[in-house]
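From the thread on structure requests for the teaching lab: each student submitted one protein with a one-line request. Submission from student K.M.:

"Model Acetyltransferase from Jeotgalibaca porci, tokens only."
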Amino acid sequence: MIQKKRMLAGELYIFEDPELYKDRDKNRTILHELNQTSHLQLERREALFKDLFGSIGENFKIQTPFYCDYGNNIYIGDNFFANFDCLILDIAEVHIGNNVMFAPRVNIFTAGHPIDAEVRNTKLEFGTPVTIGDNVWVGGNVTINPGVTIGDNVVIGSGSVVTRNIPSNTVAVGNPCRVIRDITEADKIYWKEKQAQFHRDMENLK
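Reply posted by the TA:
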């Protein structure tokens, strides 16, 4: 219990601990079954994901394969979608808001290791939480590093490596990821018109 408490508190801990091994073994058992299920086994998949995570909201879809360290340190809101090959190393807590979309191969890392090699070689490590707000779209092959907070209504471009906090209502891309512009009322007007045109097109097909 001591090492687990230290891990969740963001303090240095030793990951080779019997209780942590037990937690990881439970996780691996669930993940193995989950990643072997058919995409048609919707009810079984939903039950496994609910057993895996600390919490998850309504209306979620997660494509397999999916991987994580513990699972029970991941908290997800409503209307979540993750495409193939999502990886979340939840040494520390990961909080994901409502209406969040992950493209393929999104990685979230919370684990950190000492910079000094002698200390690092003693197998001490630590974790720092990651938080993602509401209405966020994360592009393919994005890596989100420990300690990062991403605000609401954010778009993260494909291939980005997010090493620092990203403010709400922005588009951010690059390595390291940086804000390239704000999301404005002009974006809303443009996409609302595209949406209206879509509905007009569908109506004309009837």
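TA comment: Residues 15 and 124 are 7 Å apart (CA to CA). The chain has a mean pLDDT of 96.
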